[in-house]
Amino acid sequence: MKSFKTTTLTVLVGALLLVLAVGIYMGARRFSAQVNSRIWVVHTYQVLRKLDSLLFDLKSVEVSQRDFILFGDDDSLKTCDLFAKESENQIKQISELVQDDPSQTGKLATLKNNVSKMLAMVRSTNEVRRTQGLEAAKTLLESDTGSGSKANSVESIAKEMSSVEQLLLQQRLEQLNKNTAKTEQHINFVNALFMISLVLSIWIYSASREKAQKSLALQHSISRLLNESEDLYQAINEIEKLVVAHGSWSCAATWLLNDNENALRCFDVFNEPWLKESAFVEEIKSRKFIKGEGLPGSVWEKQEAISIVNLAKANNFPRMPLAKACGITSGFAFPIISEKNFLGVVELFADSKHNLDQNTISTFESIGREIGRLIERQRTQMRFRAIFNQTFGFIGFLDVEGNLLDANESALKLSGVEFADVVHKPFWESPWWTHDPVQQERLKDAIRRAAAGEFMRFEANHPAPDGTTTFVDFSLKPVFDSDGQVKYLIPEGRDISERKEAETRFRAIFDQTYGFIGLLRPDGIVLDYNQSALNFAGAKLEDVVFKPIWETVWWAHDPALQETVKQAVEKAANGEFVRFETINPSASGEMFDFDVSIKPVKDHSGKVILLIPEARNITQTKEAERRVSEFYSTVSHELRTPLTSIRGSLGLMEGGLTGVIPEKTLKMVKIARSECDRLIRLINDILDLQKIEAGMIELKRSDVETDQLVERTVEGLKGMAQTLNINLIADKRTSGVVNCDQDRIIQVLTNLVSNAIKFSPADADVVISVEQGADNSLKFCVRDNGPGIPPAQAHKLFARFQQLDQSDSRQKGGTGLGLAITKAIVEEHNGQIGVDSELGKGATFWFSLPSVSQLPKQPDDQVHQLASHIRPALLIEDDDSIAEVLKAHLQHDGFEVVRACNLKEAESLLQRYVPLFILLDLTLPDGDGLDLLTDLSNDNLRQHIPVVIVTGRDADGAVSCGHPALIDWVEKPFNEEKLHDAFHAARSKIGPARVLIVEDDLAAREILTQQLNSLGVSCLEATNGAEAIKVFRDSNPDLIILDLLIPAPDGFAVVDILKAEPNGHKPLIVYSALDLNNDQKRLLKLGLTAHLTKSINSIDQVIGTVREFLDGLVPPSDAANGEREEEEV
Amino acid sequence: MRKINSVLIVDDDDNIRLIAQMSLEGLTTWRIQEARSGKEALSCLEGELPDVILLDVMMPDMTGMDLLGHARALLGDNLPLVIFMTAKVQTSEIEKYRSLGAAGVIMKPFDPMKLPEQIEEAIAHFS
Q: What ipTM was reported for this prediction?
């Protein structure tokens, strides 16, 4: 309605404005006509004034001419000329002014003509007067009678013209007055029109303003409603009411998209009272619309508002009959959209025609978008609220004072709290906290600190309605506004009761477990220790925590133990598992045995992050071990004591110390003695096996070469094999190193080999070999050619008292425990044992041990530690302590010492080294020292090495060995004096150092020889390369002086050859005329080498270098002399 | 090598003492002294010192090890070489004897025909 009126008004105002515009246009025209009239009046006045001026000028010409003629003065003449010119000027102007007026043109032409004639006459008369004088001028003047008439005609013509102009002026003034009156009328009319338009415009403007304001107000109130509304249904209902009231609609319906049905369902209808219970409204409430169906469906499809002014004419409006029935005639619908998502439709219906302008439609569309946003917001809020309420954690909301603003359902349920009872009240006074004043205080403090911006976290417990207690990991988090001020606090709690319980349980296990357990940082600082450990020392956790473990009460009693623990921690921090046994005092001072271990705990990258120290009280085990050990000791003692007497008596009788006994008796005594021995072995074996199986033997492990194990076994059984005519063969093709208890493995090998020997027929071979086994192990095999073992019985072999044929045991003299012990020992070494056999084809007993990498070549190291020119004494002695003593003696006498523990090592050392002399023990683990002497005697290079034998054997053997350089035979225990004497003798036997001089020039050779001899050094000479090499090989000199330019092979070649010699690493002085470059010097090198040039370096320098190189071999001259004297003596 | 001229046998078992004595007297020229207890042995040591003491471990009143201690206290550097002759020969026991300064250990039952040899060897190794 209003909009309709507005349009009419607008048209009216438009028409008025048109009239006003025409009026103004016409007024303007009228005004322009009036101005025109006024111009013509002014024009006429101008013509009249010019005519008057002309007449005046002409008069002036006449007067001034008369004066000139009369008086002949120049002034009058000038004046006359001036006015004449002025007159001509006036004529010209008048002609311009009246040229468009035909009525005046004729008169003007006559006027012009007369005036010019008149002026011409005046000028000619004036000329006569000036040239001919007054009389002539008078004459002329009097002769010209026509002039006066002419002046008169001019005047009359001018007056005629004036009268014409006067008439014109009269007409024009009348016209002007008429125009002025008309213009005034016009102006009045236009003014009136303008006023009307103005009033109308203001009215229309304010009307439209009011309308816009109303539309804005609607939108605003809807926005406010949407913003403030918590409840969607209520909000939509209010919106419907507002829209209906605002737009005089009769009914508003909101349809929302039901995702499940993919159809629109009525969410709410608002209708005016008269539509209540109408079929139309009921239909709206009950039906659904799919996309494209009816008005809502069409809006959905197009996603824009649709207005139907006349529903009766709409072709897609199925509800028409119902609408018609209740008088609904027009409809409008707009979509509810959020971020391009279609959510629903709002329909409006009216009983009158509603023709909506675009503005209104846009307004409704924007309302639709706002509703859309509300729905979206409501849904999001619902989701958040659900999360907030239903989340497992306890969450709330506090103001900075600590008053509760909100709490989620989980939290309320936790302690059975009603929200209304606690909201807007201090949090600490709520039932979550009131049960415990201490916690209340802590909370208050936390709230104060959180309000200051701190994040607070602590463990709390809250009472549950069922009387139990819930343990909560509680935190208080400040929420800051954009200025950085704390606005709210978020209290949050997580139920950790289960974890707490598990923790308590684990703590109980940790604390109450019998063992002592702790937790250390990798640097050994104690983080935790269990109650058992603390109780043991009568300590409290705070006494030990944050201290280095070795400074804690458990270790304080023993500084050495503290050091052990410290080192163990360092090892563990490097990732090693450390284990050791200790004795620690309890709180009462009683001492206990402990099995202590420190285990590193690593993170995924392998870095050690924690250490777990553990100690097990093994006092009882230790005690039990001691008792068992004691028992075995006692048993063996008690059994052996009587056996000792029996065995002893029998032995004495058998040995003939009790006098001669009859042969039959002797035979019986022998049987008794032999069985007695068997009984003793049996007892020993039983005890041994028992101990091994009880894990009571301690393996003394070391890295041992397999060759050594085999050799020692063979050595031990050589006699037995010989007695039984068996070839005992050690196959040493494969060898390696195993980590084992040497004696125990030899015991095993001995057992297997002696079995093999026992069960082999005479003249058979028994072969011991080592093979590469699986998994980097070494397999020891003992092969015999005995009767073999049926495979079915093989497994029985290693059981106790098992011999395949009981009769064998008597025959072969075994105890039946050997293989059982063997098996136990091998297994104790983490090895495996077995037998491969076929009946009648012999048997191979084998066992395997883990292999370790090769032993470092100790002898090499020893040699390399020495300077190349120093020759040490070689000490061959297997017993460590004796070796130490001998070494000390040797060093005391100024010898460098290299030691070999056995023949093999000694041989290897002698391969690479020629020692000053050899100190030799005869009883060596791998053979007889005398064998080494025999070998040396047959070696050209080494036969002259002085040898001193130090042994427990008596000196009888000395004669038989026949070594050329055997100095002395010192019996053990040795007498120190005798030992030093022997050393002295060995040293003198070494004799002077020998220098090989390779020089083809006789003179040079002689000088060198002479000089060196005076130094106490003996000289060997060679004149060419071949000779040099021969002498070198034969006599093993201590130093070589080498000329390079010698007959073939030359010095370079000699050096090359000597380099390849086993003892080629000798001090060398190259003394030649050649100037050597660095490359050559590098090639010419053996041991310690000097390069001297004949032209530059003197003989003295050569001798000096010899002395320097042979330091220790060249005695000071006094000592050298003394020794020589002694030799002579 | 230190020459052996005299040996003191200390053992509470008369039989064993007798066998040892017979063995040594039969096979060597050594002078043999006997003591049946630690106490007796100590009084023997107050007189002329033997070169070697052959010492049993398990004896009533005073063990062989105790005796060794007393003898050392009594004689200091003049203490003769001591060889334990005992049936208590577990590894740990032998180590203990050695640590006390024993020159050697001979296991019981012993072979009387080899006893002098064993004594000599033990002493040779000890040096």
A: 0.82
